[in-house]
Amino acid sequence: MTPKELRAFCLSFNAAVEDFPFNPETSVFKVLGKLFALTNLDARPLTVNLKCDPEDAVRLRADHEGLIVPGWHMNKRHWNTVTVDGGLPDPLLRELIEDSYDLVVAGLPRAERLRLDRP
C-alpha cells in the first residue's frame, strides 16, 4: 500500500476526515472528532497507528513480529503501530484500518452512530 492509497482508504470511510493537529507532517484521520489512524505519509518506513482490540493486538504482534508493534506514543494496550510498506498483505492492512475505524465508531454515543448511518 502506497502513502496515497493509505490516505485514500482512510478517507473512504463515512464521515472520515484528515486533520493536522500536531504538525504539518502528521496526518490524523478522525471520525466525528475521534482518532482512528495516525501516520506521517512521508516517513520511511511508512507506519500507521491503529486502534485494536487488546486481545487481537497481542495476537497480531506475535503473528507479525516487527511489522506490528505496540503503538508508538499511544496506549499500548489498545493501539498498534503497523508497518505499511514492510511486507504485510494489503487485504490485512485494509482489515486493520477498517477494524480501527469500527472500534472508534462503536465507542461513539448512540446518537452520533445513528447519524453516521444516514445517507
TrEMBL record:
Keyword Kinase in record: no
UniProt entry keywords in alphabetical sequence: DNA-binding
Superkingdom of source: Bacteria
Pfam families in the record: YjbR (PF04237)
One GO MF term: DNA binding
UniProt cross-references to InterPro entries, sorted A to Z: YjbR, YjbR-like_sf, YjbR/MT2646/Rv2570-like
PANTHER family, alphabetized: CYTOPLASMIC PROTEIN, CYTOPLASMIC PROTEIN-RELATED
Name this protein carries in UniProt: Putative DNA-binding protein (MmcQ/YjbR family)
Species in which this protein is naturally found: Streptomyces murinus
